[in-house]
Every structure is written in C-alpha cells, then in structure tokens.
Amino acid sequence: MKNRLKVLRAERDWSQQDLAEQLGVSRQSVNAIETGRYDPSLPLAFRIAGLFALPIEQIFEPEEDVAGRD
Q1: pLDDT tens for residues 5-46?
Q2: Contact in structure between 32 and 39 (CB atoms under 8 Å)
Q3: What domains are there in the chain, each with its CATH number?
C-alpha cells in the first residue's frame, strides 16, 4: 500500500521517533510503514489519520486500482 506518511511527517518536522511516540509504536514500525514493507492495522491507520486530521484515503492508497474486480 502506498502512503504519504513520510511527506506528512516531514511537513510537521517530526522525526520517525516523534511520530512513533505519538502513535504508541516503535520507530521501526513507522519506518516499515513509510517504506511500504508493512501495512498498518486498521486501528493504527485510524490513529494515523486522526493524528494528521485527514481521512485515511488521503494518507493511504492501494498499490494498484482494484475497483471493479470481483
């Protein structure tokens, strides 16, 4: 899943550690999400969206368009 987490974090001048502490996760988890190696759980995605005051869809998007598939 692609995401804008790194850009959003940088706009606020937060380190990965700063973001991790606010979310209650490890810095390694933040790094893994930013690099696309790990997709956050839905509760974590909601925490991230809440922290940035954005809808989840403005932070995360699928790698490929899956609309219309059965």
Answers
A1: 999 999 999 999 999 999 999 999 999 999 999 999 999 999
A2: no
A3: 2-53 (1.10.260.40)
